[in-house]
Amino acid sequence: MAAVLAAGPGAVLSHRSASALWRIRDTAPAKPEVIVARERRRPGIHIHRVALPADEMTVARGIPVTTPTRTLLDLAEVISFHQLERAVHETEFRRLTSPLSLDALLARHAGRRGTTALREIVNCRNLGRNIPRSDLEIAFLAFVDKQGLERPLVNEKIGPYTVDALYPDARLVIELDSRSPTRPRGPSRKTADETATCSRRATASCGSPTASSTRSTRRSQHSSDRSPPRDR
């Protein structure tokens, strides 16, 4: 709120600062980001000069801020594809609404930098599911995409467990070196027996992955055959 007040009348919180307010990203930038209609300079504040339509701004927790959809549009210019993907999923998961839909906003701002990536995410991803919950999971999905492999399901429940990555057809569970907030408190790693149980339940408990890739499935099966789960 202090940054918005310091930026003057008509200023609204925006970009990464707005995403932190909406809780669709975990961290806020070192410098608060705001949008203003006229050129202004304020030390310690990152100011973007934009004339915002009324349906692209709102008030949340008493703070003037860009709407969730406008926030995603602004984020598309300043963060990576996989970080943006996570933000889009979080927006859907949290059921954040805006006066203007994301499709309508993309049509209004067609050709703007970042809109191609945002449109791809909206059109091709299963929104609200398969949400990466950590930077490591984002990096893992980026690695999978770069290698042209089939994407796993992420943070999928199998019985009492939530596994980091799952290939149900291959009955392969991949655990990354991070704790999941949805996993019960206690050791951050499942035992070999528990992981094997997850793998056996995988096909029955979960649907098929969102894309089909024979090559990646074969690699997953070979990896499973060569490298049995280790004690965690």
What is the topology, as strand order, of the major beta sheet?
1-2-3
Tally the helices: 9
What overall geometry do the principal axes of the alpha carbons give? elongated
Low-confidence stretches: 180-192, 195-232
- Decide which structural class fits the backbone: alpha+beta
- How many individual β-strands? 8
Rounded Rg: 21 Å
Outline of this structure?
With 232 residues, the protein is an alpha+beta fold. Helices cover 41% and strands 15% of the residues.
Describe the structure.
There is one protein chain. This protein has 232 residues and is an alpha+beta fold. The protein has 2 domains: 123 residues, no CATH class; 79 residues, no CATH class. The chain has 9 helices and 8 strands. The chain has a 3-stranded mixed β-sheet. Strands 6-7-8 form a 3-stranded antiparallel β-sheet. It has a two-stranded antiparallel ribbon with strand order 4-5. It is elongated and about 55 Å long.
